[in-house]
Specification:
Strands 1, 2, 3, 4 and 5 form a five-stranded antiparallel beta sheet that branches. The protein has a five-stranded mixed beta sheet with strand order 6-10-9-8-7, covered by helices on one side. Strand 2 and strand 3 form a beta hairpin. It contains six helices and ten strands, in the order αααββββαβαβαββββ. The protein has about 260 residues and is an alpha+beta fold.
Length: about 260
């Protein structure tokens, strides 16, 4: 009876969810020695373990085919020396197509198969306390970045870590100079430059990208989640110029 009870207890323990920290590990020594089928299984486990789990259930009955599925990694620290405060997460869209027939004839019950991937990056800049710098920030499993939610509205799109750092620093610098009255040129649709730029900085960003078109120039465009755009540029070490406009965006709902 004791043996049977012990066996039942062990079986129940094996059926419990495995925490992320206990995920199976892999090493180069193992990869070079073990059977390829074992390595393939371990790599699949590592790849899937990157993405945060999501509940995709819905009370609404779908009508459209499953052409893509969005996967998001846990945020992790980017940059060097643990001082940047820059967190990054990767977004991967798995692209799917019907196994038989044409996509235009597919619906929600059509069998689909993955054929490709699209990836993009999201960034967030944290203001670090002294005790959060160095190895504490660089901790990819338990550091400040890992504790962020993947739906945190402060995440913004940028093409690279360098662009995210440079663009964010430029935006903060422009806001500081506006507060100090050091911006000789600042064009806004409404209100004062200080008010418009301060309000823009306080709201979450959607994206930023480099818009420099000549050597020696610095230029970034920023789009807020409220469809306001700011362009900040500087030519050959001169003063900063700022232009803030409201975008006209047409959105069409996508049927499910």
């Amino acid at each position: 009876m004791r043996i049977r009870a012990y066996a039942m207890l062990m079986l129940a323990a094996l059926m419990l969810p495995v925490p992320a920290s206990a995920q199976q590990t892999i090493s180069k020594a193992k990869v070079r020695q073990q059977d390829p089928s074992i390595t393939d299984a371990q790599l699949r486990d590592q790849l899937w373990g990157l993405f945060r789990k999501a509940d995709r259930r819905s009370p609404t009955q779908p009508t459209q085919p499953l052409t893509g599925e969005r996967l998001v990694t846990t945020p992790y620290p980017a940059g060097a020396f643990g001082t940047s405060g820059l967190c990054r997460m990767d977004v991967v869209v798995m692209k799917l197509a019907p196994t038989q027939g044409l996509l235009r004839d597919a619906d929600a019950v059509t069998p689909m198969r993955a054929y490709g991937l699209e990836s993009s990056k999201r960034f967030l800049v944290l203001s670090l306390l002294p005790e959060e710098r160095g190895d504490v920030f660089d901790d990819k499993w338990n550091g400040p970045c890992a504790r962020l939610g993947q739906d945190d509205p402060r995440f913004f799109r940028a093409v690279s870590e360098e662009a995210a750092r440079e663009g964010h620093a430029l935006l903060r610098r422009a806001a500081a100079e506006a507060q100090a009255g050091k911006l000789p040129r600042c064009d806004t649709a409404t209100g004062s430059c200080v008010e418009a730029l301060s309000a823009f900085v306080a709201r979450p960003l959607e994206s930023m990208w480099n818009c420099a078109t000549e050597e020696g120039a610095t230029c970034y465009r920023f789009v807020g989640k409220d469809d306001v755009e700011a362009r900040i540029w500087q030519v050959s070490g001169g003063s900063l110029h700022v232009e803030i406009t409201r975008l006209v965006v047409l959105r069409h709902p996508r049927p499910d």
